TrEMBL record:
Pfam families: GAF_2, HD_5. Residues 171-364 form the HD-GYP domain. It comes from Deinococcus malanensis. InterPro entries: Cyclic_di-GMP/3'3'-cGAMP_PDE, GAF, GAF-like_dom_sf, HD/PDEase_dom, HD_GYP_dom. This is HD-GYP domain-containing protein.
Length: 364
């Protein structure tokens, strides 16, 4: 083998390793597509690169990510059989290479783009499922056979990354559905609390984003919101659904639901320590007079302090066995009155801004 050939192979291997390393950091389908287009643009010295994902429902290829000088519009949809991308997708696993002097009339062109040399790499799983097509072009020089082979390797790496991201997405959705079912199981015991789980999940995410919480904390908060009342499944109906005040022994049973819920949630695969903190501590009070541990102030986990506001607000503004709903202004007044006693005053300020639509204060 000539030294020049060896160097080309080594350069190709380095490029493939570079792409593979960056794909490892991409966790969602959109992140994989972004890495695949941007890194391919750089490593293949192209004028543009775009990824067309398969929209199975519409039987079309959809431009879902692009990079470079001549980006086609995102959302551009090619029905089955239209354009060179579909030709590549339907003709087999190899990369389609088209010289700029041989572009057929059936090609789909971007307005104002010059004639250029083109490559189209289909991404297919081992089961022959089409995921999409990676397309790139440049004016000069023409793509070489070596570059065609390199793009095929890029497509294989992208396929693996997309499959991994898709399976992770499925696992996340399955977990989300499991958490929702567990939350709804509690609501099924009491018609008047129906909708509480979804509402508290949604509102707690709004508050978390207003506070600038990182994605991992938002995930913990969402899990905790789904499962916060899980322990009430162990509370007898005579206590849980009692229309009047609870006596001392009944309150003792009710206060156990946070600990019971934490223990139950530990057995649910994937539930995080942060979520467990929400389940256990969302009835703690800023002044230390809450339960189950009598935590005070910032000793209470941040996410539990946050969720306590959401939980109480939703309970006040919707009918429960032991009280009728009050208006939102009345509920906000009660929350303000409890600042510094029941609730973290800094978090309360942000929560009120979220509810009223004012600009939130800086993160506490």
């Amino acid at each position: 083998m000539h030294a020049r050939d060896t160097e080309r192979e080594n350069a190709g291997l380095r490029a493939l390793l570079d792409l593979s390393a960056q794909l490892l950091g991409a966790h969602t389908l959109r992140e994989v597509e972004a890495v695949l287009t941007s890194v391919t643009l750089r490593l293949m010295h192209s004028r543009y690169v775009y990824f067309l994902s398969l929209d199975a429902a519409q039987d079309a290829l959809l431009v879902s990510h692009s990079a470079g000088e001549a980006d086609p519009p995102l959302g551009l949809r090619l029905p089955r059989g239209q354009g060179l991308a579909w030709q590549a997708a339907l003709s087999g696993p190899e990369v389609l290479m088209v010289s700029k002097d041989e572009i057929p009339q059936t090609a789909v062109r971007t307005a104002g783009a010059p004639d250029q040399h083109l490559l189209f790499a289909p991404l297919r799983t081992s089961h022959e499922e089409l995921l999409g097509v990676l397309a790139l072009g440049r004016v000069e020089p023409p793509f070489s056979t070596q570059e065609r082979k390199l793009l095929l390797a890029f497509a294989h790496a992208g396929t693996v990354a997309l499959e991994r991201a898709r399976e992770a997405q499925k696992a996340t959705q399955a977990r989300e559905n499991t958490l929702l079912v567990l939350g709804l199981a509690m609501e099924a015991r009491d018609y008047e609390t129906q909708g509480h789980t979804r509402r508290t999940v949604t509102l707690s995410q709004q508050l978390g984003r207003a506070l600038g919480l990182p994605t991992a904390d938002l995930d913990d908060l969402r899990q905790g919101a789904y499962l916060h009342d899980l322990g009430k499944l162990n509370i007898p109906d005579r206590v849980l659904l009692k229309p009047g005040p609870l006596d001392e022994s009944e309150w003792a049973l009710m206060r156990q639901h946070t600990v019971t819920g934490e223990n139950m949630a530990r057995r649910v695969p994937g539930v995080t320590p942060g979520a467990l903190g929400v389940i256990r501590s969302h009835h703690e009070r800023w002044d230390g007079r809450g339960y189950p541990d009598g935590l005070r102030g910032e000793a209470i986990p941040l996410l539990a302090r946050l969720f306590a506001l959401v939980d109480v607000f939703d309970a006040l503004t919707h009918d429960r066995p032991y009280h009728s709903a009050i208006t939102v202004p009345e509920a906000l007044g009660m929350l303000r009155d409890a600042a510094g006693t029941q609730f973290d005053p800094a978090l309360l300020e942000v929560f009120l801004s979220v509810l009223t639509g004012d600009s939130p204060s800086p993160q506490p």
